[in-house]
């Protein structure tokens, strides 16, 4: 949605007091009206003022942020919804001082740049992540982004695709490439291949020349094979461990449900395997046979996407893969700002392949 002058008038009168008594209509204001259009600074943003359920989310009219010297103001065309948005909303993770704008990634057009920004200029298309945690989030018409947290979006790649790939793509990169050093011809096991992280990790591992085993509900098996998975198994089958080992013991495992699968991972893993641990439903996860882990020389890497040292550098690599058609994020559903509460519900409770995307 745009920021047309009619809808923004009440907020404008707050921010541009010089003109508030003079604006009567487009016809009789002439130049003054144009001046107003250039200076108004309102935007719509989803915010929560207290922690809680989806009912704490509301759309507020607030002042548009101003970029600092090393920041970029992005006009948001698309923002993605991630499970972590719901952890911040409930207060399980504390994002910063309330009220808070949820959303950790987005894509759009550069509307302004700080004086020390060199990599993008006004009008460039860019995508970003690492937001929504200490830095206000992306479910808004505009967001300020540190230059280090964004990269240019290639021509031909949509803003929805950029938003859909950003957080999960950086997560897949930090786990498979950075933490686990996945090499061509190695075998990767991606649990939950239909998820936001999973469907990008499958493509990244395949693009890296690895052989890919993934697990998912049967409805998604054909699509995951199309995305590059060599072997796809129903995660609820009783003989899952046998099926995974028969396909090839994994050298690298991406595990988003550690409490369910840590012992399983150790059991099926190849000698010297690396396990990337990104998520859990219960707090505790255990190995059932520690000596066997030792004998296999297993390593476990706990990864938080928010610890990525240089988001923009990883996003640039993902941009290249998208431009080369080696990475195609899937947008499962779209929501407007008022529907973000439903999107938070869906990301936790519904089944879909790919990503949920908000278009302000
Ligand atoms: N550490 C980090 O930096 C980081 C970054 C991103 C995400 N995460 C965490 O990683 C997890 C996944 O994130 P996401 O964005 O991919 O979430 P998502 O899009 O909701 O995907 C979750 C996937 O898990 C699948 N699943 C459900 N039960 C399963 C089971 N028993 N075995 C295997 N797969 C199962 C779901 O499939 P169905 O649809 O068939 O149920 C779905 O495809 C979340 O806990 C998230 O918080 C961590």
TrEMBL record:
GO terms for molecular function: adenyl nucleotide binding; alcohol dehydrogenase (NAD+) activity; anion binding; quinone reductase (NADPH) activity. Pfam families: ADH_N, ADH_zinc_N_2. The keyword Oxidoreductase applies. Keywords: NADP, Oxidoreductase. It comes from the Archaea. Signal peptide: none annotated. Its EC number is 1.1.1.1, 1.6.5.5. SUPFAM superfamilies: GroES-like, NAD(P)-binding Rossmann-fold domains. Residues 52-358 form the Enoyl reductase (ER) domain. GO terms for biological process: small molecule metabolic process. Gene3D superfamilies: Medium-chain alcohol dehydrogenases, catalytic domain, NAD(P)-binding Rossmann-like Domain. This is Zinc-binding dehydrogenase.
């Amino acid at each position: 949605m745009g920021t047309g002058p009619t809808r923004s008038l009440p907020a404008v009168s707050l921010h541009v007091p010089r003109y508030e008594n003079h604006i009567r209509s487009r016809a009789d204001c002439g130049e003054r009206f144009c001046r107003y259009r250039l200076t108004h600074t309102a935007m719509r943003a989803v915010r929560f003022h207290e922690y809680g359920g989806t009912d704490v989310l509301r759309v507020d009219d607030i002042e548009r942020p101003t970029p600092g010297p090393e920041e970029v103001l992005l006009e948001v065309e698309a923002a993605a919804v991630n499970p972590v948005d719901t952890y911040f909303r409930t207060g399980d993770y504390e994002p910063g001082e309330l009220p808070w704008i949820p959303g950790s990634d987005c894509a759009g057009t550069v509307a302004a740049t700080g004086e020390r920004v060199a990599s993008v200029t006004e009008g460039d298309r860019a995508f970003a992540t690492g937001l929504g945690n200490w830095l206000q989030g992306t479910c808004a018409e505009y967001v300020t982004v540190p230059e280090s947290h964004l990269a240019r979006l290639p021509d031909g790649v949509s803003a929805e695709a950029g938003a859909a790939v950003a957080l999960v793509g950086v997560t897949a990169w930090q786990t498979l490439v950075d933490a686990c050093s996945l090499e061509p011809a190695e075998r990767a096991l991606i649990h939950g291949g239909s998820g936001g992280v999973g469907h990008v990790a499958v493509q990244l591992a395949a693009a890296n020349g690895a052989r890919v085993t993934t697990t998912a509900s049967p409805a998604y098996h054909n699509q995951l094979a199309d995305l590059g998975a060599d072997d796809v198994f129903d995660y609820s089958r009783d003989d899952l461990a046998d099926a995974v080992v028969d396909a090839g013991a994994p050298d690298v495992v991406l595990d988003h449900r550690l409490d369910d699968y840590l012992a399983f991972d150790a059991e099926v893993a190849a000698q010297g395997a690396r396990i990337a641990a990104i998520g859990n439903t219960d707090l505790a996860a255990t190995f059932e046979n520690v000596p066997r882990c030792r004998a296999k020389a297993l390593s476990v890497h706990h990864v938080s996407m928010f610890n990525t040292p240089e988001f923009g550098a990883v996003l640039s690599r993902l941009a290249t893969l998208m431009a080369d058609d080696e990475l195609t994020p899937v947008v499962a559903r779209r929501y407007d700002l008022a529907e973000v509460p439903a999107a938070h519900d869906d990301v936790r409770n519904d089944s879909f392949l790919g990503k949920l995307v908000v278009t302000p």
